[in-house]
């Protein structure tokens, strides 16, 4: 399989973690987002959304897009270790936290949206303030969504889930924008637990061949 | 079950369609988003994200958030008719289109984000232009993501899926913002097929008790 991504893309990072947890190795193809390589005609033919990640299967004809759809596919086709709990209610809770990040934080503060803000002559300070506020409010809501009596060390028990795949990259992004994380101890504890795992270590941006 | 929503919320609308397709009736509780009722302390205790929908289960203690997580839960607990295809690859394709709308269109142009733009003194014309462009670009990409040889009448064959649950409300939103839909015939054909189904009819905003 080939994963089209970019070392700093939080969406590609989620899929890198999933692949590493499942013990799957893939060829990595980098598209430099700040240089706009994801808008090249050849890439748009692969993914008309012009976004990373894309997972190309070994037949070179099947192309999967959208990080959460790719992670769910990986989980269905390579069930061990699972990214989602065994019962429907807990799956819904894990997916809700993943989606609270993947829908309500990341797309509202990604490169593309911040670039669009700049075209409206919004001052640079307000652009970074926009990202900082959306991340801070969104992560606070995520923490409040967590079960109250969960012993951890992960968000939903003794192993990471789809929620951590979204959380860890989003926390890194939060730091880049100077978000104060002091009031988010449960998220930080889960992140610390993730960082002890080789799969999370291998998927980190600074470990990717295209890291700057 | 109780569904906390708002007649015009596209996210609540997705869940209304899912419930209707599954033949489930629920009590509807409306929260007027333009009046900010979703930010009332009582509602934030239910959903700290301050967003609709929320599905409260009959035990009155279990609360599900995030429309796609709720729809997946409904599909797992009430499998007929299915909202997702039977095989993993087609499920990934359906989820990708649903997520392309639920992550990359809706949260970037919803009420909350447009209100935030206004706080940055962006002119009203640019605010509506922002929404129109994001919806137009996003829907064009969705159409391009569809399988080329699909006979329809729905996006992925003879029955609607999670993708239509996201598409139909998003197309209504597109019209509110004056998006030109003429180049999106496959999306419009799927919408027309949906509109013949009683479940989609019953879930429409103008059929809700809180419709204005």
UniProtKB/TrEMBL annotation, chains A, B:
Gene3D superfamilies: 1.20.1050.10, Glutaredoxin
InterPro entries cross-referenced by the UniProt entry: Glutathione-S-Trfase_C-like, Glutathione-S-Trfase_C_sf, Glutathione_S-Trfase, Glutathione_S-Trfase_N, GST_Zeta, GST_Zeta_C, GST_Zeta_N, Thioredoxin-like_sf
SUPFAM superfamilies reported for this sequence: GST C-terminal domain-like (SSF47616), Thioredoxin-like (SSF52833)
Residue span, GST N-terminal domain: 1-82
MF annotations from Gene Ontology: glutathione transferase activity; maleylacetoacetate isomerase activity
Top-rank taxon: Bacteria
PANTHER family for the chain: MALEYLACETOACETATE ISOMERASE
Assigned protein family: Belongs to the GST superfamily. Zeta family.
The protein's name in its UniProt record: Maleylacetoacetate isomerase
């Amino acid at each position: 399989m080939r994963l089209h991504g970019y070392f700093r893309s939080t969406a590609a990072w989620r899929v890198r973690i999933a692949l590493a947890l499942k013990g799957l190795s893939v060829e990595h193809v980098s598209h430099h987002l700040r240089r706009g390589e994801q808008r090249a005609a050849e890439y748009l033919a692969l993914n008309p959304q012009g976004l990373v990640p894309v997972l190309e299967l070994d037949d070179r004809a099947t192309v999967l897009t959208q990080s959460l759809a790719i992670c769910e596919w990986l989980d269905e086709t390579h069930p061990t270790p699972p990214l989602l709990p065994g019962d429907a209610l807990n799956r819904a809770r894990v997916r809700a936290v993943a989606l609270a990040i993947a829908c309500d934080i990341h797309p509202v503060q990604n490169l593309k949206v911040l670039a669009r803000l700049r075209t409206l002559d919004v001052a640079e300070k307000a652009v970074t303030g926009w990202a900082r506020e959306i991340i801070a409010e969104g992560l606070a809501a995520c923490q409040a969504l967590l079960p109250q009596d969960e012993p951890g060390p992960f968000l939903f028990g003794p192993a990471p889930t789809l929620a951590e795949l979204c959380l860890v990259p989003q926390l890194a992004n939060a730091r880049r924008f100077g978000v104060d994380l002091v009031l988010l101890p449960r998220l930080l504890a889960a992140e610390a637990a993730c960082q002890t795992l080789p799969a999370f270590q291998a998927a980190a941006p600074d470990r990717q061949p295209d890291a700057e």
